[in-house]
Amino acid sequence: MSKSLLTLFLLFCIATNAQVKKEIFESFKLQERRDVSYYFPEDYTEDKKYPLIVVLDADYLFDLVVANTKFYSNQHRMPQSIVVGVHQSENDIRWEDCDFDQSSGLPTDKGKQFYEFLGTELIPYLENSYSIAPFKMFMGYDITANFGNYFLFKDRSLFNSYTIISPVLATEMESRVPARLSALDQELFYHLILEKEKTDDRNRLLQLNNAVASIDKESLHYSFAEYEDADHVSIVSYGLAEAFDTTFKTFRPITPKEYKEQILKSEDPAINYLTNKYELIEKLLGYQRDYELNDIMAIYAASLKKDDFESLEALSKIAKDQYPETMLGFYMEGEALELKGEPKKAMKAFEKSFLMNEIDFLTKDMALEKIDAIKADFGY
Fold this sequence. Notes:
CATH architecture of the largest domain: 3-Layer(aba) Sandwich
Radius of gyration: 25 Å
Distance between the termini: 70 Å
CATH class of the largest domain: Alpha Beta
Largest sheet: 8 strands, mixed
Oligomer: single chain
Structural class: alpha/beta
Helix content: 40-55%
Number of domains: 2
Strand order of the largest sheet: 1-2-4-3-5-6-7-8
Number of helices: 16
């Protein structure tokens, strides 16, 4: 079995063990009954909010998306999410759902009805029935990928993230999409995934890439992936991992690369990186996420390296709140006070830390060493 086939087999095994159900959705907008599949995390609870991933072409994409969702969330590289897939292969109805007028590039009447089905029926149904976070992700392939772009043309995009796989572009989309991405005032992730082989739309797609890549905007997170060995069928499985990686980069723990290249090299206080990261997560998820110990320790190390006592002070407050039974917060407070030149207060903080539980690499012996060193230097 080839490596790529083995990977797909393993992902399928992960997906089939997931909590998946399929039902018929009665659509007033379409005047049709549509097959829809859902994935919910096994430990789903109303106490948490879950990003929503909307998948068109569910017959091709749903299992792969569910597998990636489950794998990445198990590895703490993204939050647990709900996935909804709309099936469109029967009678090739995907072309009717997502068809567009050749002259205007706008959806046909059926396309408008399908747009309303997604935006005013299916997604609101899920929002009313389940604990859905503000963050929503769209995924589509060729004609359905193009259809996702229409959700950019409202005053505010319904989706925060778009995974556009080898799209069949509607008229003037190569210029309309960049214009909308540039104009929208919200945090957006846009991923364009292509095969290298020549297609009818290839030149226009490369124009689209060049135009979007030239947009200089902090709130736009754009990625482009082109695969040498993929064709128009296999491209479906190639780019999903990269789209997940890029979209959920903010949600995963701080990496050694981030630490070296973004935190240490920044002239800003180290704590800014942490607070900005978690403020964005709260903005996208709709709730305040607990601080990862890995992230706290990364900022702790950077603060010491930079002699940044202000960041240490702020970090100690976060540690006391998040890990109140441990010595982490008071130990950090002691080191901040040492850097500020307040040894007496620092010693008291280390004494408090000594009375609490050890955590990570911090031990009671380390607190004692700090206390003894201050006593020896200052005679307290």
